[in-house]
Amino acid sequence: MEILAFGVQADERPLMERAFAGHHEVRCLDVFLNEDTAPIAVGYETVSTSVNAELGARVLEVLAAGGTRMIAQRSTGFNNIDLKAAERLGLTVARVSYYSPYSVAEFAWTLAMAVNRRVVRASTRTRDFDFRLDGLMGRDLHGRTVGVLGTGKIGEAFTRIAHGFGMRLLGWDVTENPGCLELDMTYVPKEQLLAESDLISLHVPLMPETTHLLDAEALKAMKDDAILVNSSRGGLIDTAALVGELRAGRFAGVGLDVYEAEAGLFYVDRSLEAIEDDTLARLVTFPNVLVTSHQAYYTEDAVGQIIEATVRNVLDYKAGRRSENVLVPRS
C-alpha cells in the first residue's frame, strides 16, 4: 500500500521515508490538505495529514469518494477534523496522542526569555553594529510568579523549568497534576492566576469550551507588565482583543508560536505576497511581540516520535487493531 502524506516539511521527509521503509511506500507532498488539494488523494486508501490540514466535512467527502479509508494525523490536536463527518463516511481517524512534551515546554520558555530580554531587537541592532542598551532592559524571573494554564504533560514540563528559575507557581486546570503539586504549585481560579502572574503560559487543548480562553475580559485582568506566551493553539486567545491591549501599551512581552487564523499562512513562504490578514499584519508590528511559525514541537526527538506513532497507526489500521490513538475506529 502507498500512503499519501500531505504537508511534509523538508526536514521531515527523510524521517518519513525511513520510518515507513519495509512496511509501506509513502509519497510525501509539501502542500497541505484542503478543499483544493483533496482531489490529489484519489486512489490512496491511507492519507497522512499535518496539524494545519483542513479536514471539514467537504474535504472528508472528497477523500471518501476518492477511495480514502484511513486518515493518520501527525499531531496531538485534532480540532481541525470533523469527527462526526468522518464517522458518517466510514473513515478511520487516528492521531498521535503523545510525543516529547519537552519540545514544546522548552520552546515556550525560549519565547518567554526572548521577549523578556529583548533578544530579537538586540540581534537586529548588532547586525547593524548598533551596540546600545537603550530599550533592552528585561527583568529577573527569579522570585516572580508564573501562571500555567493547563498542567498536563507539557504544562508540567514547563512548570519544572519555572521551578528551576525559582518562581512562585500558580496553576489552573480541571484536574490537579500530582507532579506539579510536588513542585509546590498552587492551583487557583483562572481570575486569580491572571491577576497575580508576571508570566502566563498556555498549555490547554483547543475545544469549544477553551476557545478564546483569554478573551477581552481575561486579557484586561492581566497585569499591565505581564508576559504572555502561547505555544498551544491560536484559538485560545482572542487575537483582535490582544491587539487592542497591545495598542493601549500593555504587556511587557508576548510570544506566540500559534495564531488562530494560521491555516493557509503558516508553513508557507508568503514573503513576496501582500498579507490580507490585517490582524496578523498589525500584530507583528509591535516591538514587544514575537511570532513564530508553530514550530514548538519541531525537534528531532518530537518529530521522530510523531512519525513513529504515525507508522504504528497505519500498521494497526491494516491489521484491524485499535489503540489509544484512534479517534474514529474502523467500521
UniProtKB/TrEMBL annotation:
Stretches assigned to the D-isomer specific 2-hydroxyacid dehydrogenase catalytic domain: 8-327
Pfam families found in the cross-reference section: 2-Hacid_dh (PF00389), 2-Hacid_dh_C (PF02826)
Record keyword Transmembrane present: no
Domain spans labelled D-isomer specific 2-hydroxyacid dehydrogenase NAD-binding: 110-296
Keywords attached to this entry: NAD, Oxidoreductase
UniProt xrefs under CDD domains: LDH_like_2 (cd12183)
Alphabetical list of PANTHER family matching this protein: 2-HYDROXYACID DEHYDROGENASE HOMOLOG 1-RELATED
Family, per entry: Belongs to the D-isomer specific 2-hydroxyacid dehydrogenase family.
Name listed for the protein in its UniProt record: 2-hydroxyacid dehydrogenase
Organism: Streptomyces pseudovenezuelae
Taxonomic lineage of the native organism: Bacteria, Bacillati, Actinomycetota, Actinomycetes, Kitasatosporales
